[in-house]
Structure formats: structure tokens, C-alpha cells
Amino acid sequence: MATQNRRDFLKTATFLSASALSIPTTHAKASEPEALNENRMGVLVDTTVCIGCRNCEAACKEAHNLPMETSFNINNRDIFKLKRRPDETSLTVVNEYPNPKNKLLPTDVKVQCMHCDHPACVSACIVGAFTKHKNGAVTWDGSKCIGCRYCMVACPFQIPAFEYNKAIQPRIMKCDFCFERQSENKLPACVEICPTEALTFGKRKDLLEIARDRIKRRPERYINYIYGEHEVGGTSWLYLAGQKFSNLDFPVLGTEPAPGVTESIQHGIFAYFIPPIALYALLGGVMWINRRKNSEEEK
Amino acid sequence: MRALVYSILIVLISLLVSSAQIKKDHSGQNITCETCHVCRVPTKDDPCLRACPRLLMIKQFPSPETGPDVVVMDDLTDRYMPGVFPHKLHAQMSEMTGGCIACHHYNTLGPILNCKECHSIKRKREDITKPDLKGAYHQQCLNCHRQWSHKTECVSCHEKKNGNTGLSVAQLISRFKNKSHPEVNKPDVIVYDTNYDKGKLVTFYHKEHSTLFGLKCIDCHNNENCIRCHDLQKKNKEQISGFDLPVKVQVSKEERHLKCFGCHANNKCSFCHSNEKMKPFDHKLRTGWALNRFHKKLSCIKCHGNKKSFTKLNSNCNNCHSGWTPETFNHKITGLVLDDNHSDIDCEECHLNRDFGNKPVCDNCHDDKNWPENKPGRMVE
Asked: Rg for chain A (alpha carbons), in Å?
């Protein structure tokens, strides 16, 4: 009845197991990140200097050719009653929070993509539409995107937005660190327009020095924390504040890179190819038992 | 050979130094060059100044009146008209809000530096340790102005270059030229409403402190917020009046006491705290020695010295007025020349218990005479 005898089966099984074990097991943990450029750029956002004028919002829309609705008016401070998030028409927004030190000087916080050093969106994207560039920027390529929106789920800051209302070729929209402007040797649009230079553009390593220096010089003004220095493995955009970051709606995140978490789970399951081998062993066992039954019946 | 090279180098360096046009008042300061300069030979083109803050810098500023009345800021006029900054008015206001140093934060003792000497007019630049000129201006101005005007619109401060509808630069300059800050309204008395159980009210006689006790405004008001007086949403009257009603204390207990403890550290709580509004300071009630009309005019420090807490003085006249004995005292300086009958009697016959502050008594000798209807002599100016 059976054309394959026991010896043949064992031969095949041994071959399969051997070939399975010979597959490199380096992917057992999260993939090693590519070496980050030491001179990658960043922006230091000093929330104690930001005045909430929202010129950055307007400059961003202009630089990215985004629609400016008639209701869009940067001088309308009533909008601060809401807490907004960046969306497909506004890649950056400013929110306002009460300042316990002086109620007449509220704390204004600009929100945009943090341009992580180890971006979860890049890792989650199954078609490689996201790129972490040498200059620190994390950008999205529309020609590769299939619209799965894994990036939106993966992002620890919930930044990528999707053009739901567009039937044809909807795009993932997020701050691109003015990648094009930077390649033309221009500053990001928001940095250029900011009247108080609450946004300082420079090399990330220099910005960290500057941030530490400001905290040291004005301990009464700043809390001793640079948000983004270590969050999810470090971000290109760094923040200084005069009050707790958790009061300003900054998520409390660990220092492990965000892709590490998801990738470790995914890759952990397949560590050392144990599940396939176990499955093969189980199937082989079932087959062997069945075969023995059959041969016993034959006898 | 080596010596020759060194001597040439020394000559070259000294030439460079002499060409650097160091101003007398600047190089003559009692500080070393290294306090400000990184390199050994700073030049005008490359002063190689240390990055701010130059914390060890000696700072001394002239009075607001000697500075410019108006400063026109026209380095960044891309979209807006030049800024016309009433410098003197702000300098005068700054006296209670931190002084010149609030803006001229890292100045040398030499000439007062312009903002642009440290702050680059370009945003894209090498040294990003300090803000560019635009950032520096706005950080400096808006810190107060957005509290004052409750606005952050560009046009609430700037006139647009195209379609300027407001005053021209020349008009603005003439508007602020020779203009000084008016004298600040001072309350006579402020009653503070505190949380202290044993005495809720603290009556603060502001005028006494500023006139009698010889305190200057900045002795207490050294770090005020401009918004305390200047708020576009409030009318001036609202802010100045209302001192008669108890003012709720806003700051912490420690902070509030700090200002008073400079002088009142050894006083009991009840010295200031009471459940009723306190009467003004009365020298007789507190010390048992009434002030006469001459002594009333004096500030406390005239007699008690410029100490933080005033100590009891000997009440003998010649403790202060050397040579004033009953024999040599000329009564004329009080405005009354004693007649012959009165010039020979003891002071204490009329001034009971040497109480020169109260009216003299006549009934020791006279039944029908009384001060001031009857005078023991002739009044003079």
C-alpha cells in the first residue's frame, strides 16, 4: 500500500532537520540596527520658549502644499481648548497646557514625528516604504506603500496619518523633517519661521550638549530631563520643559527601541527553528504511528 | 636661530595686539583677558569670545537715563517695519524687574554691547549655543509682552512693511523721545489676608517703609513681573485701587516672610499679625517716647542708624544733640523765644517727665493759663 518505506521516510526527515538547523539563527532577536550616522541632525524644542504662535503650523502646510482651510487661523488661540494630534492635513500641531509656575505663561508644545533613531514604522513596514536617512529623517515612499497602515499601529507616538478620504492613491502623511528642503541646504520650514527660536536645528549630539547646558544654567526654569534622549532608543527631536513631561501628554516610554519589542516577539517564536522542527517531529510521530498501525493490520 | 624665530614671533604678536584697538576702559578692567577671550590674541575681526554665559564677568550699568531713549531695530526687516524700541522706558521699568542685566545679560564692563554683537542675524549658522538675533529679540520681548497683551500675533507688535497703516518709524521715534516712565503709584497701606489662625490680617504701612525707614523700591521689588502693573486687559485704576480691602496672599508662606525677615526676623508673630487692621506705627505707643514735630519729620535711620533692626536710644537730648544742656540750650530754635520769667526755670517744670513731644503743662504754676492759648514767650519763624 505505502510506496514509501520506513527507511526512505527517515532519510527525508533527517535531511529536512539538517537543512533546517543549517539555516542561520542570527535573526532570533530583533535585527541589529544599521549604524546611525554620528552627525545626524535633530531639533531641540524648548517648550519654555515656545509662545504658541503656531507660525510653524502654517509654514509646514505651505512647505508641504497642504490645504489651508478657511477656518485655519493661527491667531485663533481658542483652538488650544482642544488637544490636537498631527493628521493628514497638519503634519505638526501646537497644544497648550497650563504652567504651574505662571498661569500667564502657558506651556506650548509642538507635536510632530520624533524621527526615532530606531523607528518602529521602518521596522513594521512590510514593503520597505519607510526609510531612516543618514541625516536622521524618517521618510515615506508612496511608490512602495500598499496602505496596510502597520506603521500607524507600530508608532509609539501615534504620528503617521492616513488620507482616509482619498479614494485614489491615499497617502500616509507625517512630518518628513523637510527632507527636500534639507537636501537644498535649507532649514526645516518650522525651524526657519519660529520667531523665538524655540526650535533649534543642529547635530543631535550638539543639541544634547546645549540642552544639558540650559538645564544646568537655569535649574529653576527646566526640569532635569531631556525627552527623546533615551525614549525608544533615542529620537532626533528632543524636548526641554519646565514641568513634568507626563503633564504635557508625552507618552511614558522605555529606553528600548520600539522595533525591538515587536521583532523580539515575532522572531522569538522562530528562535533556533524550534517550532518547525517540533512540528515536523510531531507530524513524523503521527505518520510513524499510523504506519505501524497499518503494518500491524496487514500482519 | 631658534631665539631669532621666537623674537620675530613675539614682535608679530605684539603688532597684532596693538592693532586690535582695545579700548582703554575695556582693557583696563580688573579682569584677565582669559575671562572673555579664548585665544591669546583676540582681534576685532576675531575676538574669539567665550561662549555665553560669561558668568564671572563684572557688570556695572549706568542709570537708565544715561542710555538711549529709543533704539531702532532694523536688522531683520524682511516682512515688517523696523522695530522702534523705547529703551529708556523699558530700562526704567526694569529697575524693579531685575535691572539692565535682564536684557544685557552677558555684558562686559566696557561699552554696553548690542544684542547683535553676540546673536547672529542668520538662523542657519555654525554656533547654535545661543539663539539667533530674531530668536533673542522675541524671547526677550515676548516673555513680558505676551503676558501684557495676551496676544502672540506678529502684527500685535510689528507694522507690516506693505500696507503700513500705523505710525511711521520717525513718528514712533519722536513719540518715545524724551519720554520717561511716570512715577509709580504707591499705596499708603496694604492689608494682607493670610491663613495664620492667631492673626489673619497683616497691616503693611507701605508709605512708612518707603519714606520713614528709608527703603528703596528695589529693596523689596527686585524681581517683579511687569504684568503686575501693565496688563492691557485691566484698566490702571483697577490695579491701583483696592489696596484698602484685604489682599489675599498669593505666594507661599516662606516667600512672603522672606521679604519681611530681612528686618523683622526677631519680631514675634503678633508684631505683624492681628485679627484687626493695625494702627500705623506710633513711636510713643511702641517706645514710650513721643516724637515732637521736629523728630517726626526725620526718617528713622537719621537717629537709629542704617541698621536692619532699630535699637533703643538714650532719650537724653545730648545723646544726639551734643552740647544741649539746660544751661546752654537756646529755646529759640523751637520757634519760641522764652520770656525772662520762663527762661530760668527747669525744663521739666513745663515738659513733665522730659516728654518734649507732648504739649507743655502750665498748671504747675498757673491756675488760669494753658498752652497753646497762653505762650511763655514770643513765637518766631
From this structure: 26
